[in-house]
Amino acid sequence: MKIDPEVKNRLKQLLKKEVEKINKMVVIKSAYQLDKNEIDMVFRALPEFYGMPYETIIDQEIMAGIIVQQGSKIYDLSLSGQLKSLSNKIYEID
Amino acid sequence: MENLGIDAKLLIAQMINFVLFFLIVKKFIVKPFNRFVDDEKTKEKQTEAMRKTIEKQTETMQAHEKEFKQKMKKEMQTVLEKAKGDGLVIKEEMLVQTKKEMDVLKDKTQVQLLQEKTALEQEMKNKLAEMSMLIVNQSLKSVLDETTRKRITEKILNSKN
């Protein structure tokens, strides 16, 4: 099946916009629902995301703290992340 | 002569007869007989010479045989000694080779044992770490209430500031 080049081009542009939108979106994962004050604290802690659109996700597995993701960038400031890091350090000890 | 009782004619005839007899005997009996005797003597001499030659040859052969046997014995002894020496050398080489192989095997086994020990230790350590993490995770999950989670989150964010 041959797609009309104009339609193809528009679809590409649309997809690009969506990807950009998703990439700009800051996802904040936490173990409970963060309040406004806590979100402000997050942006103060990570000023590079300040003013960007964001969404919050609740994930009980992280126990405490937060995980911030934007595109391919991930900041793991969670208790589970710290435990994982500790676990990796234990594995590395000879 | 007649008075003596001798007949001259008879005497002459007898003499002739004797001469003839002598000649005939000499020619037809004595000569062949002598020849036969000579031939026999010659044959006997030849036989004797042949016997002597054979005896000499037999002695020479016996001497050769004796010499050959001695030579054979000597060679056999030499070969045996050489074989014995070679056998000893081979035995030594085999012993050295076996020792080398044993050493290699020993080293290999030691290395293998060490590797297995290290792997086992690592596995134990990993299991221990895994179990510890599981216990910590489960404990934290059951212990942490929302207030504590909030406090921890605040502490983490403050430490980042």
UniProtKB/TrEMBL annotation, chain A:
Cellular component aspect of the GO annotation: membrane
Keywords annotated in UniProt: ATP synthesis, Hydrogen ion transport, Ion transport, Membrane, Transport
Pfam families, per the entry: OSCP
MF GO annotations: proton-transporting ATP synthase activity, rotational mechanism
Organism: Candidatus Roizmanbacteria bacterium CG2_30_33_16
Keyword Ion transport recorded: yes
Subcellular location: Membrane
Identification of the protein by name: Uncharacterized protein
TrEMBL record, chain B:
Molecular functions per Gene Ontology: proton-transporting ATPase activity, rotational mechanism
Localization in the cell: Endomembrane system
This protein's UniProt keywords: ATP synthesis, CF(0), Coiled coil, Hydrogen ion transport, Ion transport, Membrane, Transmembrane, Transmembrane helix, Transport
Keyword Lipid metabolism applies: no
TM region(s), chain numbering: 6-25
GO CC term (a single one): endomembrane system
UniProt topology in membrane: Single-pass membrane protein
Main location as per UniProt: membrane
Biological process terms in GO annotation: proton motive force-driven ATP synthesis
Coiled-coil spans in chain: 47-130
Function noted in UniProt: F(1)F(0) ATP synthase produces ATP from ADP in the presence of a proton or sodium gradient. F-type ATPases consist of two structural domains, F(1) containing the extramembraneous catalytic core and F(0) containing the membrane proton channel, linked together by a central stalk and a peripheral stalk. During catalysis, ATP synthesis in the catalytic domain of F(1) is coupled via a rotary mechanism of the central stalk subunits to proton translocation.
Family according to the record: Belongs to the ATPase B chain family.
Record-given protein name: F-type ATPase subunit b
